[in-house]
Structures are given as C-alpha cells and as structure tokens.
Amino acid sequence: MSTELVRGQNLALPDTRVEVEVAAQCPVELVVALVGADDRVRGDDDVVQRGGGDTAGVTIRQAGATFELDKLPAEVERVLVGASLEGGGVDRFGVVAAPVVTVRAAGEDLASFRVTDLGNERALHTVELYRRQGAWKVRAVGQGYEAGLEALLKDVGVQNRARVVDRARTALGGPAAAPFSAANAPTEPREPGTVPRVDANGGMAWAAPPPDVEQEANRRAARREVEKLYEQVWGVFEDAARSAAAYRSAIEYADGRLDKELEGVLNDPAARFSPAGLAAQDTARDRHRALAEQAKAVLDRDTAQLVGEVEQLEPNLPPVMARWDSTSWAGWQAPEDGAPAIRLGDLYLPERPELRVPMVLRLPMDRGLWVDTGATGLEGERGDGAERANELAVSLTARMFAAFPVGEFKVHVIDPAGKGTAAAPLQPLAASRLLVGPVATDAADVSALLGRIIDRIELVRMAVANDAVDSLPDGLDLARQLLLVHDFPFGFDDRSAAQLRHIVEEGPRVGVHVIVVGSRADAESFGPLLEPLWRSLLRLTAIPEDHIMDPWIGLPWVYTPDLPSGGAEATRQLLSWVAGGR
C-alpha cells in the first residue's frame, strides 16, 4: 500500500533498488546530486543528469531515475532528486498542476508526494534518499528555486555550475562545452618543485605543494571527522523538526476530518440523537482516535531513535561543541585550525522535552549574538537578570577563544556602566589578560574603540572588494575580532548606537563579530534606530524560552543555555589554558 507523504515526512526503504518518478503537466528534466556528510558534492561528477555520463548506482531518464543504493560510494550520505523545467512553453511550476513524485521499491509503489504551494519556482528539490544508522530512508522535501537549476546546484556546493549544466545539455544535443584537456594547462614555465593546481573555472597553474603532504592530509581527515559530527547534529535537528511537523500535520488532518464528519451529523437535528446519528459520531471519534494514535506512535518511534543518536554523539563531540560537563574538555589543546562550530546551548520541542538537540553555530559567525537580560522565560517570570546573561556571554566568549588558534582571535569589551568587569561574571575575562587593550568604560573610550573597529572594517572591506589585500598596512591585525558590549544600551548615544549597528551589519564579512548583552525594552528611547540591529542579531536567553525557529519547518524550539555547573571557575580555567597557549 502506497503512503502519501507530506513535506518533511520520512519513510524507511525496504530495498536498496529504488525508482523515483516525477509526473508534471510540463516537460521536466531530473538532476541527481550525491552529497556527503557536509551536504556538499565531492565534485562535478556527483551531479548526474540524463546524458551526462554514467555514474555507479544512478540511472537517469527524462522524468525518472533508478538508484542502486548499495553501489553508491560510502562517502555519499544523501541523494537529492531535483527536477527542472525544460521548455514546453512553461516558465514556472506555479502555472500547472502540482507535480507528483512516486517512489517505488521492491517492485511496488512505496510512497507518493504531491509538491503543492508552488509559484515562480523553476527547479525543485523533490525528495531525498538518505542514510540513517546504516539503513536508507526517503524524505519528502518539496523545496523550490526561483533562480532555477543553477541555484539548486549552488546549494550543494557545485563550484562551476554552468559547466555541470552544460555537460548534460551537450550530450543531449545542445551547444558544445569547452572540454577540460591539456589546452587548459598553464602556459608559463614550470618552476622546480611546483605542482599543477586547478581553479574553479577549470584553468590550471603551477603552485607550490603543501609543506608536508602527510601532515596536511591528517589535518584534513581530522577536520572532516569534526565536520561530520557537526552535520550529524544538524541531521538530528532536521529529522526532529520534520518528524514533529509530520505529526502536527497528521493531527491537524485528523481534527479537520473529525470536524467535517461531525458537522454532517450535528447540523441535522433529526439525526443528531438518532441511533444512526450517534453511531456515526462514535465512528468518527474512533477514526480520529486511531489516526491520532498512529501519528503519536510514529513520533514516539522517531523520538526514541533520535534520542539514541544524540546519546551516541555527545561523548564524541569536540570540546567547543560539547557540554561544559563533558570529559572532552580535559583533552583540549589549542587548535592549529579554527573549529567549524561552537555550542550555544540545547534545543527541544515542548511536546518532546526528552530530546535535547545540541545547538551548534557555524564558525566564523555570519551574524552577531544578543544575550537578552530582559527575557521572561516560559512561564512569564523574569529570569535571573543581567548576572546570568553576562555569565552566558562570557562562557560563549571563552568557547570562541578555545575554537581558534592562539593569537587568531581578539576580544574588545565595552562596559559603560564600569562595574561588570570588576566583579563576577565578567571578571574572568578582565583577569585573563586576553583582552585587546583596556575595557572601554567612558563615552570617549567607547567612541574611540567603535571608531577604530569601523576603520578596520572599512579598510579590509575595500581591500577585499578591489582585490587589493596585499596592499593592506603591514601592522594591521587581521585576526578575528569580537566586540563584547555589556549592559547595552547604557552609556550609548545616537551616534555610538549607529556605529554599533554598522559594526553588527558589516563586521562579519571581514572577521569582526559582536555579542551584545542587554534588554531591548531598555533601548526604547532610541525609537526605530535600533530595530535593524535587534533583527540582525541571534537572540539568546539566560533562561529557557521558546523563541528559536528551525530553518526547515519554522517550528518554535525551546532554547536552554549551557552554563558551567561550577559557576565562573570552569570559564576561568579555560581562559587560563588559552592564555598559556596549552
């Protein structure tokens, strides 16, 4: 019996031979991307299209594909099945009936998925086949791309999208693409000891080899293992979000069906209390109960599996991605390369508090953090206030110190109140001797520090934009910078607030990041000036609060901070290790 999937729902595959077909009222071409644990293809050959050459385990025809999953390379964790428009007078999916994806396994129809709510999309990520603990599953995705196939390919890390698209079109009779051959080889003389390097456009040049090939290979392998753990955490997060969304969708469907069935009986006074009417009501409620129990059983099964995966992951996470009480901190060493991510805390859904998913943030951060001192928590009670918020901000700063090589991460502190660095919990930072210069406390110091940071941002930004990085002054510190602002907006005027907003918006592009500790309510006197600042920051709370939305379904998750159980002592110890270059 075929299962009708909704967005986010997954289903186990009973066989490793799987067929996927996409039926639409317009011509479509399938594209398949084989991605690894980092959600990226290894190269152009991992993108498969009709006529684009043979790939082990994948056979493409116009609107269908056959997969022999046991023949795929071990590095392939997910198989993305995309569909793009190919002529026929249709320029977007929204003007035709919703495409239907059919999945077959073991010779029978296993599932179908109707991709609804489409508009200007010209390409679709329809479904994906993915490994989970050695077994394969199918997930309904239904993500659209208005920019077409190239945007889809960009999402999976294809460097030269035009070449991949043209490769298949050439084989199908389109214009010839320039082949990669000796003609691409560099024309300049080869220097002794150099090796060929291929750039993103397929050109070649001579370049010096790595200083120690074996050492470099070991470092890359170690980083790949950490990246894999990071992706596994996000895989659990995504699966939990989609499982919860499927559950809520099933309950909504069951409720709607019950209302509709009861409406037909209750609206007829003559049938409302008749034996037949009462029997119909009982039948409708029994059917609703069965659907709800079935949906809950699936959710319980998924949750139990994901809880087990988190329990297996936690002991293996590197220190900056682990909980503060993890034994992995005992083996911390100053890294030679920056860590891929740090832990901000944990996330859970209100209906499944037993599943705590690590909340890990990719480094370097592409947005700043706002630790809210005015959070009220789940029950509307005001939390522990500024002290716990500052403790969270300092612990996150310590994690960032530990995530970067010694000397490649610098921290500035603004404390206009003039009291936070003298006492707990900001005291560990002040005592660590890791800060760049003294803490900015008065208006003149704050203005001068903000001005210096803005000057650095603009100087580096212009150099990067004009491909003139080599012309930057020799004395310019290119290390990652963090500005920690305590008790915002105390001590700020309109000018300094506008400067901070500029740093928040432009800094991440050139390695300058911000953590703001403060209450939005206290900044009401600035009017709309700071609205863009608050919106551009990732809000964290020192007490549990359900304000974090997942990026797939948009469900609200409860954020819980991860703070050292021993107070500031663990943070102080870590900062001393960093200062000692351990």
UniProtKB/TrEMBL annotation:
Record domain TerD: where: 32-155
Pfam families recorded: TerD
Name by which UniProt lists this protein: Export associated protein
Composition bias type Low complexity, residue spans: 175-186
InterPro entries the record matches: P-loop_NTPase (IPR027417), Stress/Tellurium_Resist (IPR051324), TerD (IPR003325)
Region Disordered: start-end pairs: 175-213
UniProt family annotation: Belongs to the CAPAB/TerDEXZ family.
